[in-house]
Amino acid sequence: MVKLLADSKQGQNRSRVTPTNVSSGKGLFSNGDQLDPKRKKKKKRLGFAVCPCSCSCAICSLLIGLLLVIGLAVALAIILTRNSSQTASTTTETTIITTVSTTVTTNATAITTPTTDNEVTTEEVTTASTSTTDSTIATTQTTTLCPPTGIVNLQSFSGVMSLWTNQQFNYTATKTSPTLVFTTVSTNRIFYLDSVSVVDTTNSSIELLQNPGFDNSSTALFDWLLWCSSTCGGSGGQLISSSCLSGNCFQDACSGGTDYLLQTFSATIGSTYTISFWLKRSGAGGATGSFSIGIF
């Protein structure tokens, strides 16, 4: 009887989980982990490993978004520049500086190993990264001036020109992009312009103007700009197909105001260019108005 009781007690002792069993790593809650600070730090580092990846993805998404915004701004600046060039006479370079600051915050939760048999310790870690991008967009903006400034007048016409007459002038370039301009001030007169030409005197076979005879146009003036026609009380400059020297021509009857027909061409400073065109005038009355050619 005594022997049976002793055997029973020894069996109970063998089935009991001792601190030695736990520290050896066989139990769920390991005292060995609690006593080994190196293993604890390693597990903490594994807990934080999620954060950098999330931050990198967020920052990459932010940078892609900023590049798209900059691309749209550049496209918009180009579109605005082209639209404004139809009514402007001087150009000024401006610089637009845009600064974008964005803070990306990522939350992560790291779980440490238990410190006791019945407790689990959790630690919430919040990381934040800030990305600041400075972008510089250089644009060219135009300013409308009526009349244009800096015009050098080559010749004015106000006499009788009931028939088409050819006019010709020489011009020595002082800039690489001069602008040819025809100015009309008309009272009871209509001026007609056709077959305009600008050539280098050393190579007259190359025409420097686009659409010089207005024949590439149908209802609108292509390659030419018409400024300040809103100041005209009568009909300002327009494209017509009748009463022309050949094909289409330009007609202007600006009354009470002044409008300008112009086109820019490429030149070499110091080179001489021949400017020629055909002109006539119609109408009657005391006042004659004037038509002039200039460069700016």
From TrEMBL:
<feature type="region of interest" description="Disordered">
    <location>
        <begin position="1"/>
        <end position="37"/>
    </location>
</feature>
<protein>
    <submittedName>
        <fullName>Uncharacterized protein</fullName>
    </submittedName>
</protein>
<keyword id="KW-1133">Transmembrane helix</keyword>
<keyword id="KW-0472">Membrane</keyword>
<feature type="transmembrane region" description="Helical">
    <location>
        <begin position="46"/>
        <end position="79"/>
    </location>
</feature>
<feature type="compositionally biased region" description="Polar residues">
    <location>
        <begin position="9"/>
        <end position="24"/>
    </location>
</feature>
<keyword id="KW-0812">Transmembrane</keyword>
